[in-house]
Amino acid sequence: MENNKFLKSSNKEELKCEICLNTSKTSKVINYEGKNICMECYYSIKYPRDPQKMKKEIEEILKNTKKKNRYHCIVALSGGKDSTVALYLLIKEFKVNPLCVTVDNKYISDEAIENCRNITRYLNIDWMVLNRDFTELFKDTISRGESPCRRCSERIMREIWKIARMLNIDVIVTGHELPFGTSSLKRLEGGITVVRLLAGYKLTDEERRKILKELPWKDSKLGGYTTNCLVLAPAIREFYKKYDYSFEFRRICAMVRYGLIDRDKALQLLKCPEVPDEIYEELKRRGLDIKH
Ligand SMILES: [Zn+2]
């Protein structure tokens, strides 16, 4: 299972995008200024993302929210590397007082919860945990061979949105690194705006690791591209069994397109992840029995 069907070249006609990992099997590949590129990459050239401009948007919205409330924003903190780095940059560069909210869906690693506790204590920030149980959501999606990620993150966002409403906070900061189209902001119902802080930075993996080293943050060995979720790697394995590729393909392509990771790293990430038996045992102990 080294390669997936997206990446295998089975016929000579197949064209490969020279920027990301798409081929004519996974996207339309066109010739643009002498280069073969996919449609997604073409649009990224035509409508470029400007981190500087996105950072401006973020500054603007945080400036306005500062006047209103004891907490200037909520940070959706998962204890993984991205949301931790986002929290750190938010405090260091924007001088705001956030409330950190963690939605514990019952399948966050112990290390990630520990990270949330240690980092908020270290930075002297208030932290709230919402205990929820996403077992049914995971059972449902994984048994059908689907990615659980989209539904899981939508539900997490809904929970955090409710807290924002309750406390009259109108900005929610997340650790996503890819923006919404060409903006780092998305307006939700009720006058609440989601800010994808890292979209304004374009940090490499090394730069992020450097920030994490300054913090009381510990990595957890979970497989896949995650530092907090116990479900991701087993879910990718189940998906592989059915489709022979990773459901992270498009997201990882986008990361290559925007220069957040190089192709070699991307190919590593797209392999079927190894999952230690202990992870399956831990999932079972928490209520999710994935046969493997
Ligand atoms: Zn491409």
TrEMBL record:
Transmembrane segments: none
Pfam families noted in UniProt: tRNA_Me_trans
Gene3D superfamilies reported in the protein's UniProt record: HUPs
InterPro entries membership: ATPase_PP-loop_MJ1599, Ni-pincer_cofactor_biosynth, Rossmann-like_a/b/a_fold
Protein name, entry field: Uncharacterized protein
Gene source species: Methanofervidicoccus abyssi
